[in-house]
Amino acid sequence: MRSSNPVFSRRGFSRDNGYAGFNTAPQAGYAQGNPYAQGNPYAQNPYAPQDAQHGTVPQAPATTDRMTMDDVVVRTAITLGTVALGAVVAWAVLPVSDTSFGLAFGAAIIAMVLALVQSFKRTPVPALILGYAAFEGVFLGVISEMYNSRWSGAPFQAVLGTMAVSAATLLVYKAGWIRVTARYARIGMAIAIAFVLVMAVNLLLVAFGAADGGGLRSFGPLGALVGILAILIGAFFLTLDFKQIEDGIAYGAPRNESWLAAFGLTLTLVWIYVEMLRLVAIFTNSD
Length: 287
Fold this sequence. Notes:
mainly alpha, 2 strands
């Protein structure tokens, strides 16, 4: 299953230093003996141990160069910590002003460029990932301060909301209430792509004065509904990321791919936080 997260959308984790998509056909014998093999990119992983009856088994080899959950957790903590540090510094140093907003916009552009460069690389580059996190943090720090100056406490509530959505999504995923299948991914991706396209058109209409008050992104009931949909799409991204990370660990992805996992999760969490920030502001406005 290929994740819809931008960093995962071009390819899966690497396998034997090559491309690993999410539609790789498993070995026939293994597919019959193990349900986890169906459509899994690591079903034919040369690093995985062999079983005489079923072929490759879904356990990562006991070697230090294979990705583990601890690796993913540590790299994700480092990446998110860099985002948080950048945000705190920007909040403390840059006052709320047009100049600060311009700097935030510039930081967002740099972060986007670094994210795109990393997304098109075959292997993760920690310097690019942490650079992205730092500039993204600056952007988030400035806009969070701007929201806080108008809606006091909104950033803190958005952080709590992001944590709640992430925890709930993980709980639902681990409980098996959501099964990440090819059909699930196709439907979700269709909704996500349609959402992005509609938001792009809305942005153009607002820019040319054809939509007043932000159009679909207004601070009203319609804007709230759009924000809730955006957060649900972010939760959808998380389920696909969880699945890919779980499969990568089970089938022995290289250890350095944990940086890619951290990068993808950070992108999704930033998406959810920004949407949550807008949603908190909208509900505060309505009080």
